[in-house]
Give the backbone structure.
Amino acid sequence: MEKASCNLCVSYGQKKKLLTVSSSSPEELLTNLKSKIAIKFSLNNEAYTMKLKMEQFQTYVDIDEEDMDDVNLMRDGGSIIIEPVTSSQSPQRSTGATVIPSSPEDGHVLHVQCSTDVSTTPPVKEAKVPTKSPSLKVKGFDVREIVRNHPRGALIEEEYSTNQTITTETRHLLTTIVAAEMVKIYSYYPTREEKIAVAKSIITAYPSLKSTSSKYPYDIWYDETDSARGYLSSKLNTMRRSLPREQQRRPRTGKYSGLQVKAFKKELKRTFQQMEEVTSEEEDEIVNFCKRATAESSAEVLEGMGRTFQNRRNWISEKLPKVTDILERYPRFLDTPTVIQQEFKLLLPEATAKLISKWETRFVESILHICKMSRLPKIQALMKDLYHPPSELGDQ
């Protein structure tokens, strides 16, 4: 994407500045905008919220910093109002805008207001959420209504209506929308009963998104037997990481929140046969060889990946790396299918034969169905090659 510039009129207190921001991507736009705001208004580490007013719309729309499609809306320019966030400030319900907390790295929240001009407008007065009766708040949480009122909710509704399920990326969007509403109504620390009520509301609105192999059909969203598990719990944990230290204390227990690694470690236990580790020097040598190896060295790569299996499993179990970290260290998982087969066989030897026998009859159809719905460019390209290989296109 070539570089483009946008003009933004930014207000902070009594000061107003006209900023021109150049960028070639939404990520760069967000980074450059924050940098210029910090310089122009002498903001160091102060937390603040931003409200944007654009030409294209007449109503408020949400901007989620984790969603680059949302951030990209700022490329059309407009007026931004910056409001400081105090340490005692709690999430409030806006008269017209939904608050979506941002990613942990940035620690900011974006509000977007759109109208037909680009002049600076005064801050929107926000009303506090009533907190008299938690039971009333639980009763009034309607996921379907929340999604329908969200600017990007139509995408979820259309996809679910068409396929009776949703893709992973759409599920991320649904989780973000619902978690943001939970923060507005219940704060960053909803009670167990509130989280259960929201999880039930999700599977009531979208029945196929429930668990079919457990006692509680809503436990993939919130597991009442293990509060660290479930999509909602994970999202809330991520959102809380961006809070100042003094706001991370749980209001009911007084303890500081944090990702509960212990619960995840329990899930990673496997019954695979323990193998002998290689030395760290030998492991580094094998890893570097596998990274540089060509397709002609696939046999040597397979042998090296087998020799480092135990080192790899111990690293994953102890450090809990992200998938991107694993693939960066062992990139041959991406382009050497025999490496994946060998890893699965070493990890779950008793299940290998069963997986192969049931692969085509049980799994392939479901996987292809999910891939057809995906909006990821890589998946779409693979599906195009599968159904319209280059030879067929050439013949036509």
